[in-house]
């Protein structure tokens, strides 16, 4: 690794005692403010204190869960909605969610104000960039129809939106984004937008995203290490929640490729989302988790029905 | 008769090598050495292929349209630019080095920008295919022109031919061999380019299909579509060979290649 | 037509190849330029044909200065130079296709091509090429390629032709046959010809006059008039007169 | 003297063409025709390049390491496989068609699988580079061997040479021209392949850098890194030319190419 | 050594090229095979050298059957066949490098190469090649390449050599010089030589005996012994005896 922290971790790995446990943490995509707590735990030495030697890697697109499942990494990050496919397939991936990074679903529909999409029903007749997940489209259909719109008249464009600002200037009228990054970017660019959070449109959609997942086998065999890891991560996120500006600097130091202003602004917004109204960081509420998966079962959006409490556990988070 | 038999055994040997590999792969999968979520077995892939073929076929037409449109534009542009650069030496000296350098730019890296600039329709896909095919075709043609026998040029000059006549009677036919070599590469680039551009968004196409099946962890269908893309590339390359056979009749029996046979 | 080359000199870079070369070719004559390999024979032909500018001197065709003006004199290059991607017929018809004609040929190029092919095809019998119209050059023997190249040269201009080593690529036996054929065809078509060779026998058999080109830079070392010949090439070759000429040439060429 | 001057002007013309294009681009950006979020101005790119160079340099070494390791393995494997296939005709007949077909598989499509199978270290990146370079080098060498003059082979056979001696004295030197042509392509594939593999995850490398700056909407830095990758490709290709110059001394003065000059 | 070719026949596919060809080469003799292009001369040499199996017949070297066994007889191919990527010295030393020697050469190939180079270099003076050791073949003139190829052939085996049209690529003047050089070098090295040509003059000047190969399939049509010659090639060429031989050969070849 060449970024400052990663170099440090390499160096410490060599020096530290042999009994420090090596752990690989795979992110959901490029490093961003969702991951700040992990970088804080690394920088502030929380992992080292817990006797852990953690390396953080950037994964292939959509590949984090595969990597954790195959044992290529012990822990990773994914989202409750995309995990549904992994849990419900004929050969389910051996992973389990162990902590929520953000308490609420901060994602929503964004569009330019002049398009007038100030409620989901008004999406009718406009274009929307879809990544072609059946769950995604069902969610969208639900909120559009609940608001009296005709979903069949929403123009779906299959695409992975790389640049939200450019996309909104091009022929894409609305995009599903995470406010903490892309929404902040739009604000920074001075765009006047309408943002409709899914959690507001239908409480069922206040599911967990993103979450930390672990390899089942590994966690079963190393419960103590898992607990130690999660508590260090938790400490990191608690620090980030309390010191947004410092935490942003730590992230920037670790990942200097990121845009400084964007990270600062985004951190400011996200620091309030890490713990929010929960008793502690990482808490997954069984009702909300099951509520969403139940809705998937009812709407036949999964190959095999998901069981009650499937896919998550709070056993390792103290 | 003897030759026909030989050409059949010639095809049989690699085919049986492939089949052997597939059998080993299947056995490893059945034995559980390779877990299903890492690598589907060949039989699963075949099943996925058969089951999904109607769906894939629909996507295939989109991709083929993009590939052919891009390739067509690339070829026409390539011919025009190569003609102009051959005809006007100043253009050649100004742009040939740039052309060569442009080929080293990682085209895929600018694919996302193309989507941003041109939207989500077929335009950015066709543009990417044009970019990926135009350069090899143009450079191929220009290199082919260089192969032209200077004595043939002198012959026509001595006959008082104009530069344009020299181009059509000497340069162009001399460049065709290189052109077809470039084209054979380009058809495969065109298909892969269209697929990669579709990864970045679109309504249909094999690339769109690929991202969808990948997102749903359906690796058997993923392999099936990779197989389809490969098959399309090979078929198109064969097509180029057939076109070349008709366009360059003088290359048909290159006897010299078989001359060594007796000695082996 | 009368071709006159006056005091032509040419250098490539620092290397002087030709030094003040002068020669003439009268109407209907066959004249040979004899010289060793690399002496500058092809360079001289490039200058006469107008492909290359001499450093000094000029080329006159019936008094008109044609120095550096290609397209006036028919030129058969050293290699037989059949274009491999054209059929023999198209190769031979090439000068007629190229030629700038006025009238409808300008507007309808395929008409010009058709006319050119018809004109060229008419000569195939005479040049011993009939049946080979649609073949590609690679399918022809060396002798046939040479005959086709000669026919093409003839079709370009019936008046003055330059032939650069027309028979040197052939084996001795085929060459002998070609010499006879060439002498007989020349009796019919009467084309003024200037040709290059480094083969003494060939020079003596075929030509009315021989210029010997030699030295560095090359100059015309001698001019030999060959008279009283043509009793059939092979017999002439073993006659005492032939040996006399040969002895004279050997003085210049060891 | 004259030649030197000419080679300088030869380089100046394309350079000034590039500069002209850059000026037009800059002016369009300044005039606001091209909005900043779509295309940074050349000046912004230069600034980003200068500012970020130390950071990019760090990533560059990772990418270069992967590219060279992969290329090295690809070359060694290519030589060994080409030697075996040349030496044993059965191997050639079984695997040559497969080799050619393999080249048409969209390598990028299997990149995610490589990461899944091999992890997130340098292994999958090097493997991708090996896959991307091994095939062109092997096919290039085999095609080069075919160029060997059959009469040269007969000459050695008549001297009673063994097959291995014929390989080293005839096949190998005859194949070098093709090999270097393949290598020139391969170095550029190697760099682009490593970058694309890094897109799929890792600790560092120009591909990692690229995804990160893209994610934070820093298009000026994105262009700067594309520029860097292009520059690396060109430098490596020049390096291949230099190596070829020393390895193939008999090719140094190919006078025939300049022979036409007088006539133009 | 005595070379005997007995009743050799060969067909390619349906096409019969050679029909029961027999010939002998005595120790120290120079014998020529004269025939038109494409008649099967090179095919015959491929068979004699062991590269190609005849359909019938056999090749004997001092009574030993060497049919289909290459490596026994020195063979200079039709093209001068200098490997373009080796220096002239390495080209010439090639047969010594290839040769399977016992002893340390097997273990240390570079020693064998060094010894081979030294041995080869010793002959460069005699063959008029000194100063060209480190040059590449492309930098040599046609005549020098031919001399180098001849030296290579000689280094392979001093006993029996096959030369396939050794001088046909040269222009007539260089060829004349090469003939003289060849006759003088042969007086020193006494190598039994069988060579191919389609040039009657060359055959008469250089050889002790001439086999005429002709017809389809090719057979030996005549055998001519040339005696009382060698007063210097060029003079011999314009002597009456020479013309006699030429007439006799011309009976077979029109
Ligand atoms: N374009 C050129 N540039 C430089 N040198 C040249 C050029 N063309 C020919 N020469 C040189 O000029 C000399 C004469 O060449 P030319 O081809 O005229 O010889 P030639 O008498 O026709 O020989 P040959 O019998 O081999 O055809 C040669 O030494 C050749 O290398
Ligand atoms: N490997 C082969 N396969 C088929 N036909 C062949 C092969 N080699 C030679 N021939 C044919 O056999 C005939 C004799 O060829 P060969 O090369 O022996 O002639 P040659 O007398 O040496 O002619 P040249 O004087 O042109 O060298 C030719 O018609 C040739 O096309
Ligand atoms: Mg010449
Ligand atoms: Mg032969």
TrEMBL record, chains B, D:
Domain ABC transmembrane type-1: 60-240
Membrane topology summary: Multi-pass membrane protein
Lineage summary: Bacteria, Bacillati, Bacillota, Clostridia, Lachnospirales
Sequence similarity: Belongs to the binding-protein-dependent transport system permease family.
Record bears the keyword Phosphoprotein: no
Gene3D superfamilies: MetI-like
Organism: Jutongia huaianensis
Key word Iron present: no
Domain of life where this protein originates: Bacteria
Keywords attached to this entry: Cell membrane, Membrane, Transmembrane, Transmembrane helix, Transport
Residue ranges of the TM segments: 12-39, 59-84, 96-120, 126-145, 166-183, 189-210, 222-247
InterPro entries for the chain: MetI-like, MetI-like_sf
Protein name (database record): ABC transporter permease
Localization (cell): Cell membrane
Cited Pfam families: BPD_transp_1
UniProtKB/TrEMBL annotation, chains C, E:
InterPro entries: AAA+_ATPase, ABC_transporter-like_ATP-bd, ABC_transporter-like_CS, ABC_transporter_ATP-bind, P-loop_NTPase
Key word Cytoplasm present: no
A molecular function (GO) term: ATP binding
Record keywords, A-Z: ATP-binding, Nucleotide-binding, Transport
Name the UniProt record assigns to this protein: ABC transporter ATP-binding protein
Gene3D superfamilies in alphabetical order: P-loop containing nucleotide triphosphate hydrolases
Coiled-coil intervals, chain numbering: none
Sequence ranges assigned to domain ABC transporter in this UniProt record: 3-240
């Amino acid at each position: 690794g060449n970024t400052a922290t990663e170099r440090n971790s390499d160096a410490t790995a060599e020096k530290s005692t042999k009994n420090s446990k090596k752990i690989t943490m795979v992110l959901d995509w490029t490093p961003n403010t969702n991951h700040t707590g992990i970088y804080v735990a690394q920088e502030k030495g929380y992992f080292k204190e817990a006797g852990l030697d953690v390396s953080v890697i950037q994964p292939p697109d959509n590949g984090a869960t595969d990597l954790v499942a195959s044992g290529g990494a012990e822990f990773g990050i994914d989202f409750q909605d995309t995990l549904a496919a992994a849990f419900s397939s004929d050969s389910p991936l051996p992973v389990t969610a162990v902590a929520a990074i953000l308490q609420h679903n901060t994602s929503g529909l964004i569009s330019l104000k002049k398009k007038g999409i100030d409620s989901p029903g008004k999406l009718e007749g406009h274009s929307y960039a879809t990544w072609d997940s059946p769950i995604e489209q069902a969610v969208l259909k639900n909120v559009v129809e609940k608001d009296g719109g005709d979903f069949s008249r929403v123009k779906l464009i299959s695409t992975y939106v790389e640049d939200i600002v450019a996309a909104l200037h091009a022929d894409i009228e609305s995009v599903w984004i995470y406010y903490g990054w892309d929404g902040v970017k739009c604000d920074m660019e001075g765009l006047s937008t309408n943002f409709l959070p899914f959690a507001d449109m239908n409480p069922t959609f206040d599911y967990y995203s993103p979450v930390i997942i672990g390899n089942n086998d590994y966690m079963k065999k190393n419960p103590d290490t898992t607990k130690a890891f999660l508590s260090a991560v938790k400490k990191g996120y608690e620090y980030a929640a309390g010191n947004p500006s410092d935490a942003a600097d730590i992230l920037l130091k670790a990942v200097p490729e990121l845009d400084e202003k964007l990270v600062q602004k985004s951190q400011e917004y996200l620091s309030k989302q890490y713990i929010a109204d929960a008793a502690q960081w990482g808490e997954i509420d069984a009702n909300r988790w099951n509520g969403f998966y139940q809705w998937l079962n009812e709407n036949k959006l999964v190959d095999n029905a998901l069981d009650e409490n499937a896919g998550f556990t709070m056993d390792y988070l103290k | 008769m003897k030759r026909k038999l030989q050409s059949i055994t010639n095809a049989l040997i690699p085919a049986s090598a492939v089949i052997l590999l597939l059998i080993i792969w299947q056995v490893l999968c059945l034995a559980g050495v390779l877990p299903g979520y890492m690598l589907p077995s060949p039989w699963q892939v075949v099943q996925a292929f058969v089951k999904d073929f109607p769906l894939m076929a629909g996507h295939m037409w989109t991709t083929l349209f993009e590939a052919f449109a891009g390739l067509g534009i690339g070829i026409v542009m390539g011919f025009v630019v190569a003609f102009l650069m051959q005809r006007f030496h100043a253009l050649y000296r100004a742009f040939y080095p740039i052309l060569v350098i442009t080929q080293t730019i990682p085209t895929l890296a600018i694919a996302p920008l193309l989507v941003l600039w041109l939207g989500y329709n077929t335009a950015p896909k066709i543009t990417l295919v044009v970019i990926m095919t135009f350069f090899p075709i143009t450079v191929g043609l220009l290199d082919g022109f260089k192969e032209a026998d200077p004595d043939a040029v002198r012959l026509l000059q001595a006959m008082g031919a104009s530069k344009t006549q020299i181009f059509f009677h000497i340069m162009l036919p001399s460049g065709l061999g290189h052109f077809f070599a470039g084209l054979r590469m380009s058809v495969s680039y065109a298909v892969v380019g269209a697929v990669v551009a579709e990864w970045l968004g679109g309504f249909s196409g094999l690339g769109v299909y690929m991202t969808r099946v990948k997102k749903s962890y359906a690796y058997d269908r993923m392999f099936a579509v990779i197989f389809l893309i490969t098959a399309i590339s090979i078929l198109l390359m064969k097509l180029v060979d057939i076109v070349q056979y008709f366009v360059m009749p003088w290359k048909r029996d290159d006897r010299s290649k078989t001359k060594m046979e007796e000695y082996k | 037509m009368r071709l006159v080359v006056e005091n032509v000199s040419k250098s490539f870079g620092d290397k002087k190849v030709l030094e003040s070369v002068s020669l003439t070719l009268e109407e209907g004559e066959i004249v040979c330029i004899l010289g060793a390999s690399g002496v500058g024979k092809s360079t001289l032909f490039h200058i006469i044909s107008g492909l290359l500018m001499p450093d000094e001197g000029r080329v006159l065709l019936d008094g008109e200065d044609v120095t550096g003006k290609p397209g006036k004199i028919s030129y058969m290059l050293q290699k037989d130079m059949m274009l491999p991607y054209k059929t023999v017929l198209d190769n031979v018809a090439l000068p007629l296709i190229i030629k700038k004609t006025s009238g409808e040929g300008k507007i309808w190029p395929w008409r010009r091509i058709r006319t050119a092919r018809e004109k060229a095809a008419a000569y195939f019998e005479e040049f011993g090429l009939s049946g080979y119209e649609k073949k590609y050059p690679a399918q022809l023997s060396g002798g046939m390629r040479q005959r086709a190249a000669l026919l093409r040269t003839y079709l370009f201009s019936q008046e003055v032709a330059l032939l650069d080593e027309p028979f040197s690529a052939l084996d001795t036996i085929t060459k002998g046959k070609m010499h006879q054929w060439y002498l007989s065809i020349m009796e019919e078509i009467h084309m003024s010809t200037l040709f290059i060779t480094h083969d003494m026998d060939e020079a003596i058999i075929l030509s009315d006059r021989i210029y010997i080109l030699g030295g560095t830079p090359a100059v015309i070392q001698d001019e030999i008039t060959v008279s009283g010949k043509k009793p059939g090439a092979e017999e002439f070759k073993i006659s005492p007169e032939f040996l006399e000429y040969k002895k004279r040439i050997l003085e210049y060429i060891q």
